[in-house]
Every structure is written in structure tokens, then in C-alpha cells.
Amino acid sequence: MDKRKMIVHSTHAFLGIVHFISLWFALAILITGGDFILVIFLHLLSTAVIILAGFSTHSIFSHLGANRTAISILAYEPVLVIIAISAFMLTGSFDISALYASEVPPLYKMPLAFIALLLILPVKLKKSPFDVGEAHQEVVGGVELEYSGIFYEAIYTAKWLDYVFCYLLVFLFGGSNIWLGLILVVLTFIYINALDNSTARVSYKQMLRFCLWVALPLAFANLLLTMFNIL
Amino acid sequence: MKLNKYRKKSPWILHYNAGGCNGCDIEILACLGPKYDIERFGMINSGNPKQADIMLVTGPVTKRSRERLVDIYSQMPEPKVVVACGSCTCTGGVFRGMYNCEGGVDQYIPVDVYVPGCGCRPEQIIAGVVEALAKLEQKTKDIEKSIRLDRSPQINNGQMDRREIAVEIAPGKVFG
Known about the structure:
The structure holds two protein chains of two kinds.
Chain A lengths: L9 H23 L3 H20 L4 H32 L4 H6 L4 H4 L1 H15 L24 H23 L5 H21 L5 H24 L4
Chain B lengths: L2 H6 L3 E6 L5 H10 L11 E2 L8 E5 L7 H10 L5 E5 L1 H5 L21 E3 L6 H23 L9 E3 L2 E3 L1 H6 L8
Parallel strand pairs in B: 1-2, 1-3, 3-4, 4-5
Antiparallel strand pairs in B: 6-7
Helix pairs in contact in B: 2-5
């Protein structure tokens, strides 16, 4: 017998499952080399669904977590879209398979986009300077607060799927050179963990200011560089 | 299901201080810290009753905190285990009989494991939690058991009367 299921209401539990399934779809399209914009959209959809679930309960901490997750979307989503447009400028199509197949690794063609991705990855992974989404003990646990039992299992697995998603985005920068991609993933993993353990949490305003004034202009500069084929 | 085997190995802990002096809380934090490191057994201090398996209570239950204690206990889904950490929590300790608290946590919620000591040592807490894991497994099995009764419900005036049988359901009447 499993842990007894305690659900707040059926919509809440259902939205948790939808979050899990739509993240699987995003990951599947990313792996099979589909449309980059569609991948970003599905990832956004899964996050939007979990935000809706957070707002659908009466718990104030759940609301707080949903608010903070929405703010972190505002921080990282524009950068991701611009990275996708940069990839379009580089390969001439939004297909991720074109990136997988490119002879010159995209890292050499759009290095600033890679740096921008490194800057927003802590926001997406809810890692320490920018983990306003869950903020460990401060706001109890973010949007997944009201889930328990098998539905929490779905949310928890989705969190790990998110890790796979983010590191696959890093892997894309290796292009057809698999070893370069793997080295990038390992280095990014070390970087994320070192950053998580060595920094303190910033407030959500500081996070927004940093992402929109540093990471977003970097991604824009990279877009211009790729557009005029300077590198 | 196979997953049960692994859930036994990763119990999530909920820690609640029911008005204690923080001595036992610091010992629990020492357990979670790098020296004793109970996270290596998969135990996470979750801070969320809905996702926890084991409840670690410290402190004599003061009158201010007892409502919240029962509230948090009832928010934990079954199966759940309560570990009382410290002398005050087990019996009331030096606070027994004072105007602001009554003796021990077991006057309000059922306690499975008592860990004595003022404050209880981290080794004792680990031993208590390991004991609690066995209890958790037993409770998990008890939920699975079906209840078979000696006689069937009787029908009076076309209505089935289950009330008499409900009286009979006692721990001795449960079959595997």
C-alpha cells in the first residue's frame, strides 16, 4: 500500500499530472530534434500549468510560490527565446536537428548565448543565487507545497526531468561533436553545483534586474553577432 | 509493489518544536549536519507535513502549541510515525505539572518511539528513527490487511445493519 493520497481538489492534482506530461513532451521533442520554439513553448506551458495549480488552492504559501515562479519565468524566458532565434540565424531553421548536425559547434558561433544560458540556468533549476521559486525553508517550498503522495511523485520527477532538459540545452552547443557537448555538460554541472553551494539567495527584484539587464543584453548582442555573421 | 522497499530507505522527516528549550532541536540539526549526516540514509527534513513520513517532536506541549501540534499531525497522510525526542517530550521532564503545559506529547497524539535524554544525543535520535522505520514498515503492512468478519451483516426491515459488526472490529479480529 502506498502512502495515502491527500489531494486538495481534483483540478489541483490533475494540473500536477499535466505539468509532468507536458514536460515529457518538451523533452521528447528536444531529444528527437523538433522545433525549438515548440520546445520552449511546451516547457513554458508546463510551468504555467504548475503556476495555475499553485493559485488554485487557498494556501498562502502556495500562492507565494506561484507568484515567485511566475517572476522567474519573466527572468529566463526572453533569454531562451532569443537563444532560439540566434540558433535560427545560425542554421536557417528552427529545427533542433539542424543544431545537432552542424559541423562547427554552435558554441564557437554563439559564445555569448552560451554565457547567457549559463546565467539563467540557476533560475530554471532553482539553484542558489536565484532560487526564489522555492527558497528552501523561507517560503516552505514553493508551488509543490500542497501536493502529497503519488501526485507529489509526479512533481518531483518533473523536477528531475527539468534537469535533463536544461543539460540537453547545454549539450546542444556541442553540435555534431558529441565529446564537446559532454564536456560542456560536465563543466556546467560542476559550475551549477559550485555556484549553488557558494552563494546566498538574492531577492526576486535583484534576480529580475540581473537577468533582464545582463543576461538579456548578452543574448541580444549574440543575436546581432550571429545575424551579421561576424564570428 | 517494489517501491515500498525503497520508500523505507528514504523516510522524510517533519520536525516540530512544541515549546521546548531548543536543546533537542539543536541535536536534531546536528543529526542533519555533516558530522552525523542522516541524509545519507535518505532522510530529508522536509518541513511539509503533507510529504513527511516521520514526525520528530521536541519540547513539552505547551498550551499555545498543542492545537498546532494536533493540526500538523492530522495533516500527515497515513502511514505515519511519531518520534518523541527528549525527556520533556516523553514525560514532561522538568516542566511536568507546570501551569503552562501538561506532561508529554503522548497526551495529545499517539507516540511510537520515545527517545529520552536532556537533550537527546544524536546517536540516540538516529537509533530512534531507525526504530521508527521498523514501525513504519509494520504500519504500512497493517494498512494492506483486509478485515474478515465471523458473521455477515444482518438485514432488518430490508436495511443492512452494520453498526453491530463495527463494534466487533478490533485488533484481535483482523486476519491477514
